[in-house]
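To the structural biology subgroup,

Please find below the input and predicted structure for CBM2 domain-containing protein, which we are adding to the shared reference set this quarter. The sequence is reproduced verbatim from the submission form. If anyone notices a discrepancy with their own records, reply to this email rather than editing the shared folder directly, so we keep one authoritative version.
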Amino acid sequence: MATVRVTAGSTPLNGWTTGLTLPSGTAVTSTWNATAQGTTGPVSFTNVAYNGAVPAGGYIEFGFQGTGTGPTATPTCTAG
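Predicted structure (tokenized):
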């Protein structure tokens, strides 16, 4: 299980996306407070209707649960 915090800098966010590439043998099985695209390999998470607007200096959190074993994945983040 992982909790991910998306933090706005000095500019508010109006929509966000974050992603990671899962190592072989791992998969996302459930997600909350975000919409997942993909379950293995490259997976991206985007805001849902109620948490896309993040005020300057604010944050939201979402989470996901997965299966498998492997090394730690490194997330990337973009906002728009």
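Summary notes: The first strand starts at residue 2 and ends at 7. The two ends are 26 Å apart (CA to CA).

Regards,
Lab coordination
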